[in-house]
UniProtKB/TrEMBL annotation:
Pfam families: BcrAD_BadFG, DUF2229. CDD domains: ASKHA_NBD_O66634-like_rpt1 (cd24034), ASKHA_NBD_O66634-like_rpt2 (cd24035). SUPFAM superfamilies: Actin-like ATPase domain (SSF53067). It comes from Desulfoluna spongiiphila. InterPro entries: ATPase_BadF, ATPase_NBD, CoA_activase_DUF2229, Dehydratase_Activator_Redct. This is Activator of 2-hydroxyglutaryl-CoA dehydratase (HSP70-class ATPase domain). Residues 356-620 form the ATPase BadF/BadG/BcrA/BcrD type domain. Residues 729-943 form the DUF2229 domain. It comes from the Bacteria. Gene3D superfamilies: 3.30.420.40.
Amino acid sequence: MKHYAVGFDIGTDSVHSVVLTPRFEVVHAPDALMHFGNPADALKEAYDEIIARYGRENIATTAFTGSGGEYFAEALNVPFFYDTLTIPAGVGIIAPSADHIFHIGAKDPYYFKRETLAGGNGSRAFVPDHATGTKCGGGSGILMAKQCRRFFEGEVPVSLSEDRKTNRGRLQDQLETIFGKAEASLEQATREIDVGGRCGVVIQSDMIHLQNRGEEIPNILQGLCDRIVKNYRSDVLKTRAFAGTERAVVTGGIFGNRHLVNVLAETLNLTIDVPELFRSAGAIGAVVCAGPVSATFRSDALVALSQAEKGTVKTAPALSTALGRVRIYDEPARVTKIQDLSVYDTDGPSHREVILGIDGGSTTTKAIVADASNLSIVAEICLNTNGRPLHAAKEVFRQIRSALGDALSIQAVAYTGSSGAFYHKLFTDTGKSPSALSMDIVKDEITCHAFGVKHFNEKVDTIFELGGQDAKFTLFNDDGTVKKSRMNLSCMAGTGQTMQNMVEMIGLDIGTSFHEYALRAARTPIVDDTCGVFTEAGIARLVALGFPKEEIAAAIAYGFMGGYVNKFIGNEPFGDFASAQGGPFKGTACLAALALHTGMEVHAFPHRQLFGALGAAIAARQAMETCRKQGQPVECRFRGLGLADTEFTTSEERCSRLVADSCSVKDCKLQVYTIGDDLVLSGGACPKGNTDSGTAKAPDYVARYKRMMNRHLERFTQALDSPSDKERVLIPRSLTFLNEKGIFYAALYHHLGFEVALSPESDDRITNLGIHYSHSETCFPVKLAHGHTAFLKEHLRKGKDKVLLVNAIGALWEKNRFCPYVAGDGFLAKDAVGIGNDDVLLPVLHFDDPAHPIEKAVWEDLSRVFGPRFSLGRVFEAVESARKAEAECLSEIYSRGEKIIAGLTAKGEKIFMGIGRGYTLLDNKAGSRIHELFASHGLHFVPAFFTRPPEFDINDIAENMYWVQGKAIIRYTLETALGPNLYPVRATNFNCGTDSILLYHEEAIINKAGKPHLILQTDGHSSNAQFGTRTLANNEVVKTHQPKSVRLADFRRKIRPVVLKDKRIGIPYMGDNSHVLAASFQSLGFTAEVMPTQTGRAQEIARKMVGTNTCMPFAYQVGDCLAWLYSLMDRGINPNTNAVVFQPMAQGPCRFGQYHVILKQLFRENGLGNVDILSPDAEKDYTNVPVSDFGILRQAAGLFKGTACLDILGNALLRTRPYEKKKGAAQTLYDDLTTELYAMVARRAGSKEFVAFMTRANNDFQAILDPGIERKPVVVINGEIFVRLHRNANQESILLLEKYGLEVMLSPLGQWMGYTNKTAIEEFKKAYSWKRMVLSMIKQSYMQSRGKKLTAPFQDFLKGRESHDSEHLLSQIQKDLVYDRHIQGESPISIGEAYLFTKGHMPRISGIYHVGPFGCMQETAATSQIQSITQKHRMSAGSAHERIVPFMDAVFGDSELPNLEAEIAAFAQKCYLKQEMQGSQVIGDR
């Protein structure tokens, strides 16, 4: 009799299996089988064991879950359920009383809140709240596994056989042993360290730099565990609070590490249980979800699946097709291998003088022994670092000494690589003769690799260099000087290391079998190459889909090389002769992938993995020759190859105990190495705690700036902890406070009679508070702002103190805006941290804008809190006093700065101008203390804030620049470009939306000036070592740079008027409304067409030209527009003379208003500089089109009628499709009707014809509706307009929502048109632009009157599906201090809808599905506020019904969201629960 049910959870790295009885009793739950990229074999192994134990005839049901389960379930025709459903279902069996489930898998993290609902048929459990992580936050389980493997794999060797099953078992035994060693090592941790980073790339980068400065592995692992928990709390749990009496459990294999469980429990102040079957919850839940369904399969069916593939994955040509463009040069033939050391027969003397070049990399440690006379290579060695750089170096010395020790006289030692500075400190005896110059040097990697390759071939003009940690790209001038050099930003860190980890995950060797497998693949699957985390996720998906290992290997090579070429190098030009060097390019597969992406012939020279070490030796020889020519004595201070036997005893001490002039800010813990009688200090980011390298230090100009600013602040502030009975205003030292407004804020409230106290400078505590309370996708300065607010909340005295949370909207009469984060930070921080409205001052400020007097805004806010206590006149006086104090402070600072610049210029010094925002440059956490790095290397780094802001007119340099700080940054960049001895250092932060656009402008300016451009992107790194490497490399270029004469006029571009006559207008697809827009142009007699979207050509263009931090809609525009222009050429049309691209614009605050400007730049760079771009302005109600006023009104009339009709037809489609009598009938009808509609718009049909058309359309839709189908839960899609209207951009979200039984409402374009029209009327009125205002008012009246007529035929059919009035939404959030309507864009509308839905004011709606592109400032701000709203509501709700607030945030990027459908499944479940509890009578009529 069949009575058992089997559940399988096919995860990213393992297969979990269980056997249950019909009563859901678990009778068998074996250990998971790790599949190493071959889940089919592991599944067969697990199933065969179950069949052998229970018999196939006794298996009644089989069900699947997990990231790889869907593929197998579909192929085997058995049930599948997403883990968002199976995990809570499984916990209901293994821990039925659990209130909270914390899950971290190999790839996806989740949280589930469980409650029990009593009913007539007994109680049942349900999930009122759940959450998942963002794309950046995924992969914690993989991250932990690969770091453990990196640290301990060398201690656990494995021998493989020919049998795949045996090998799988041996590899699993190895990895489990490694995990055991890692957990045991955590017991040996001696101190807490902060591993920084929001994602696996940055975390790994920080860990590598920690190990490279000599940090102990147990401490690093403990820091990793802490970071995983911090990120889980920030990314998944967010601001949720937990009661200590509630029961919590964990699931997911990572929680086999008890230390991690303890850290999570301590962080959340909860008792957390680890159920016996915590790893099996998903598999158990799959059986529970399946129920008594008869579904089985035969084991032999899996054999065919082991090499299966999915046709939905796009592919590129086989790597082998590019081998013809790969030229690999033969390695030297005469070589003797002694252990790992290669000794070359160079016909030299037996005893010789040599130079050592040592490259301490994150993955490998390399050394070259070169003849000091001619640089011939005597020996070379390359060892895996395995997380132990000191151990690796000692082994290098041991092997060199063993083979050659008696025959060598070491004349110089040069170091490079990520461990180079650390090695130099330890291995150099600084106590030798002070009269001789030390020939022990540290050289940057870019210079070393250039020296190394040019030693072999001077023709090389392009270097592609990829190491374990850093990526570099160097382009040379004809004379051999560096023309352009780049090192990776945060997102490309650790590419080589991450690639090696992925290769090992699928059971291959990075040096041998990986390349063999990759080159055997007949095609190459394409994965997201945005960054290492996204590439990892893409590879995991291929594994889950059952792709053959050969194709997965090819995808790894192609994906990581694609990230290097497309996202790192981007649109930079190449030279004619390219060398590929560094560890990954040792193998042929990566060389072939590089050739595919670049289209170049790639040269692979001998020793290319060791060019860094060779180049270091060359640099040392050059230094020796220079000194000898100048008659200066030199000596080598290397401690000798005997270091191989030296015991380096380590200890920790506070900086103040060891350093005479230690600062009192942090008193950092320092690593102290004892070598005989010598002490060597290593302090990471601590500027004092590092053994002196002998370089004369430069002044720290940032510290000078802050001292001056603090001296002025002291006039108006008191210490935060000073005793006082007076009312205080507490001000966070963040965002605009650090952007030159701090004095103004402090003086303003001081003159109003308050005591003013400030939060301290950012430190670890404030950072961790900020990470906890802020949205995980915000930039780091916004995280810090939340941290400062949370810190001040702890010091808030109820009834006495107020926290000042400024919302800075913009400045000046012109439209100058701050980014959405700065504009709304007061509201975001207030609600995220949980400060009551009565405890905050929340002014909404426009600086120096006559239309929005600042005194009025401050007075209105004070009146809200204090009533009539403050008069407007008193506030005006205080504002004037504050302005005066601000002016005095800035005048003194600018005067001092001018003297500094003038003095350094007079001395002939190169000056590195720090350009960026004050809250990056002046905040040690946000800016990773980069100013201290420059000072420590003797370089003059002067923050631009030390100089008076230039007043250049930049409209024809950076057109339509509307960001307040963006304008300042462009002007400072211009000033730096014009100064012969000034060189830019751009400080930015990861995910800064505005900088993703600004850097296009800045790069163009600096390229025109012919200067190097150093960009340092920080993101909360605990170590700034990686920025030191970039700083030194940039300085090498600056040393030899010859400035060219440029004038301001050289940067200006003529802005020509757009001509439409006799041209073809191309309209990017932005939803079906693009067809209406094209028809409206056709109605005026123009030729217009809608561009194809997301073609293969368009995607390839976007990948190459759009950077990592730039939002997805812009990438679509770039790809689609350029692909369309190229297609015109294919049709014989010259786009430079016969094409116009339509690209609307706005005046901020998001990036949309800059799209057309950057498109022009990209057009110029690609030979399309004469293509016009037509950019109607939202701020001008889209009336700035080069046609007559009558033509504008005529087009607007047709456009509105068409848009209104299209919105209604789209609404009718979504109302009908879930209930249609015949599948597909609604879509067919919609397609036919819209085709007819476009033609009506094009021929300017009259209003009566439109009304008749809509009446007929209503009847047609009702005719295909099946009234017998019960109404389903209704969900609203809102959010960023492009993503919600573009089906490709949102991964066909509507169809997925309908698949899970939901009826969808889509926020229409008409809602946005009404909002922008009203906003434009207000702005025209303030600007006294009466003609434009009247035109917009006419347009408004027309829209309202025609809208009613066109909607009337559908009034009954679409009852309850009306769009929400934006004015009502904005007034509600304004009134309740949720957000401010002056923060323009979609975010206030999204927040308003969510706010009213949460409060129960939208009874017909069962859920909100919020969409936005990855990194979108508007929608991240919206999501942040909505999460605060919903969490606050849930905490105060009195019933289960009220606690169910179905809200889903879907964030889309360059690649598909692999867990989107899993999230929708859980979201739909809550929507049905919401509908059930609120009663079907409010959902709508049948």
